[in-house]
Amino acid sequence: MRSRFLAGDAGAMTDEALLEFLLSYAIVRRDVQPLAKSLLARFGDLNAVLGADATALRKVSGLKDSTIALLKLAHHFRATAHCCAAEETPAAKPMSSEIISSTVSALPAVSASSLPADVPAEVKASSPPRILNERKLQVSNGYDLDAAQLARLLSFIQDHPQARKITGAQLIEGSGLSNRQVENLVSIGTALGLVTPRTQLLTPYGKLVARHDIFLDSITTLEFCHFLAAGSVRHLVWFEVFNDLLATQQPMDQPAWSAWLRGKFADQYSQKSLMKHVAHEVRFILDAYLVRNFKKLSLLTETPEKTYAIRRYASLQPLTLSAMIYTVGARSGARVVPFADLQSQPGSPGRIFALDAITLRQMVETLHQRDWVRYEVRHGLNQVRLHEGYNSLEFLAAAYENRVPRAQVKPQPPVTDPLLL
What class is the 318-420 domain? Predict the structure, then answer.
């Protein structure tokens, strides 16, 4: 592992390989690969493992205080490096290298006071203190992705632009939906990156969708909502289906999906909870991608034997892919994104759209030719450099308004995920 790492082998730079390499310094003369896999399965990705609270890490079998101390030390060095990079590059101030998004599992506690000064007051007001490293087993709560009813909810919220918070009672009265419908639609809307949790307002991206595509019909909306929902480690079943089950397993039928997921989560939830909720979430995903709006993406295919597999996506729209790349950059607070972070990492566009490296590279080269990003090959490693003056919301707005994205004359700080979501 050491020689592969020092040689810059791409295979040694994956989350699993890096975590295994790090663990080997604390746990000697033992195969630590199973432990690395277990940690990634529990917390989602390398950033989440390093940033996880020590109390949560102590609950993982096989982790002693010496190992936890090493993980926290690595996290400290990583955070310090990002802090220094932010000081050297004022235009690229990350809120935190560990914050994934307001709806994505992330590491530290986030409060309004911890947000940068350039975050609008309305976003700060919608960002109450919370711990973001929890993963959500129930997103749909047994409810379907009903675009018409979700549109009613979004429309009512849109009609109250000055509200600092909209209560469940107000949503019920204003939308005409039942309490259970509102509760489940808010949960689904949050997973899609359209609604803020707790305050139940529209996110900046949600405002774009409510203005241009309130019924979730356009490919732009479906591609980006899929990226946010299936790419978020917070949405447990949704994330695992597209980042592990479909990516690594042979086609299986619906009961086999549920059984496989229950086995994977067995040490995290009671059997009663798993039996009750996993089947609902699996049914929700299959219905959303085979029957309802996400069917337009043609991501899932059903065989004559009633098994399901992922279909390699033909081509992401250039503007939507650009928005995804700038979102990946915002998650790490970096202006340079390794190509591997876009192609093979859990939650990456390449992973959740089943894109091979050659196809994705061709797509990125198209963005390079349009001068929306700069595709570079340095020291044998492919990377994508983000241009100042652009952000995810601008690319999405350009897609909805059928125009060319416009870079700000005065370079603006990148839109970090809480601004986007």
Answer: mainly alpha
Question: Could you identify the residue written with the tokens 């870079």?
Answer: 407
pLDDT digits (tens, 9 = 90+) for 376-395: 987 667 899 999 999 999 99
Q: Which residues contact 402 (CB under 8 A, 6 or more apart)?
A: none
Lookup: tokens for 382: 């492919």
pLDDT tens column, 70-91: 888 888 776 665 445 444 444 4
E-strand stretches of 122-232: 130-131
The whole-number average pLDDT for the span 253-257 is: 95
CA distance 109 to 130: 6
Residues 6+ apart with CB under 8 A from 87: none
Name the β-bridge partners of 302.
308
Domain boundaries along the sequence of the chain: 2-86, 228-310, 318-420
Q: Which residues fall within 8 angstroms of residue 269, CB to CB, at 6 or more apart?
A: 137
Instruction: For residues 185 and 288, give the distance between their C-alpha atoms in angstroms, rounded to a whole number.
Output: 14
Sheet with 336-338, strands from edge to edge, namely 336-338, 381-386, 373-378
How far the first Cα of the chain sits from its last, in Å, is 38
